[in-house]
Known about the structure:
It is a single chain. The protein is mainly alpha-helical. The protein is built from 15 helices and two strands. The chain has helices at residues 2-9, 13-29, 36-44, 47-61, 69-85, 90-113, 119-138, 148-151, 163-181, 183-193, 195-200, 205-231, 242-252, 264-283, 291-332; strands at residues 157-158, 161-162. Strands 1-2 form a two-stranded antiparallel ribbon.
Amino acid sequence: MERLKTILKSREITPLYMLMVLFIIVGIINPTFFSYQNIASTLYGSSLYIILSIGISFVIMTGEIDVSIGSTLGLCATVSGVMIRDGYNVFVVLLVVILIGGFIGLINGIGIVDFEVSSIIMTLGMLGIVRGAIFLITKGRWVENLPASFKELSQKNIIGINEFFLMSFLLVIIMHFYLSKTPQGGYFKAVGDNQNGANLVGIPVKKTKRLAFVYSGLFSGIAALMFASRTGFIAPISGNGYEMTIIAGCVLGGISLTGGVGSIIGSSLGVIIMASLSKVLVFMGFSSDLNNTITGALLVVIVVSDTLLQKYSISKNRKVRLNNRVKGETVNG
């Protein structure tokens, strides 16, 4: 019973409540939404967003940010599309795009950690570099004519569940346990919570931050292959704007932008909400063109709310410490 109460009060459960309320409201407005096919397709459509959220969660937990994940996704999707079209094995392609994504993440990490470039500036610069590389590879053309067998991968099911969604779910569980149950996983939150304190207790702060950006790149590579299979083509602008949706979803899911707080499960639930917006809007009778506007507005609201909550938490902790100090002095007096 105590365990159940703890779960129900946990930070991760809030976005689950929000997702359920969102679906209920949409279902009341448009009862046709309440069908297995509609709800399943809405959830399945969030698969690659979930994968992206896993990687960037490590970055945000260390108190940094990565706005290059959309362009990294685009580059890896472009490379995967070209290789698949040229007849390469899917597993070889997956290895290549993971290495490309990881390398981009490593460069970001080195620039931020070793050269002390602001993470927003470093990853914004990387966004431009990677986006330029996409246009050099494609010469501004779409990558098309991907084999039907490759495009069918996104439609396959296991025990009635979409393979890509199942894979994203399993990765969330695996990385959640890594983050919460292993010593190295705990380093990420420790660095984000108190970098100086982490240094003093022997946590490899620089290595941890570099690794966080590598993870962000690695999971962008995995998501890219899913993206290429699902769409069946890759445009030079593929991945544009994904970073806004992912970051908003992670913060909505309980990860603090100041670092040190949050979980993979929470961030995955948050991005499901954000990824569902375009479909939800259609069922509510609005144009899906409003998606970016609503996403941007939500991001501002979420960030402001997170900042206010952090200030409130700091103020509350200070009051508690002050009261304890006063009580101690009174007893000693």
